[in-house]
Amino acid sequence: MTLYADNIQSEGESSSSVLLEMTFGFKRSQALFVAAKLGIADILSDGSKTADELAKAAGVNSHGIYHLMRMLVSMGVFSVEDNEKFCLNSLGKHLRTGTSDSLRGTVMAMGDEIYQAWGNLLYGIKTEKTAFNHTFNRDFFSYFKQNSEASVNFNEWMKETTREWLLPVLEAYDFSEVKTLVDVGGGIGTLTAVILNANPKMQAILFDREDVVVGAQGVLEGAGVADRCQIVGGNFFDAVLPDGDLYLISRVLLNWDDTKAIKILTNCYQAMTVKDRLVVVDFMLPKGKMSPFMGLSSLNLFILFGTFMRTEDEFYNLLSSAGFKVTNTIQTTGPVSAIEAKPA
Question: What's 229's domain CATH number?
Fold first, then answer.
């Protein structure tokens, strides 16, 4: 994986070809989105298919699907046999639905609403207003609350990236002394379920908006931990948070400006005793050279919520403003880190 922009050009490539490759990147992501939307990987799960067979199964035009598949084959996403039948390979298998290594939800979320919002990046840069709101005439959470398919894709995106990004951090943190975990803004409980499975004596409380946690019961039951997790619906800006001895805020603060982030932290502080702990799991923007992934992710936040990723020092300032003192920071080779804090 290329980490830095000044290392992108490969030996033998001209600078113009590298720039053109970047320019055409949206075409690749849209081809992936269409394949995911049509369920191509699921159709190919029971064997190779011709373009005509794929078109019939997907309910689309045969000529169009043939050229789409040829492009995706050239990208290495699918393979083609000598008899011009298309088939799954190790890369395309990640586009299947409901598998343990699926990334279909992420592709779906990126390729639809978020793709459209990125088209208004210039508007955001010029006005410092939120491109998503400008694109859809409502904020991110209101839109997803009113669009069930988009909400499903968003939840799958969060579940898939939990697996890819968060688990290495959480595996490095010692939960052995935790009796009751409160997952603040924990969505449908994907992360809560993982932590409970790894800590069989732990109880948990999943806290998020009522319209979000409505989908949590199935996740918790599927993981076999529903009997150890209480689901509580509420607003972390104005609700009294449940009692626990470890409060987890994972990928939540990045969605909000400093004022609202401090409000969330303050509500946690008010629910805690001096013996309780808070763990913030989030992306931390490096001060110096950064990867394209981090740069794009920070701009993605700006487009969706009007915020940017924070540095480690900025997280420390947020926590201090809410009455906390940092006791430990866990950094990994990946993009996500954890900060442990206690009431000062």
Answer: 3.40.50.150
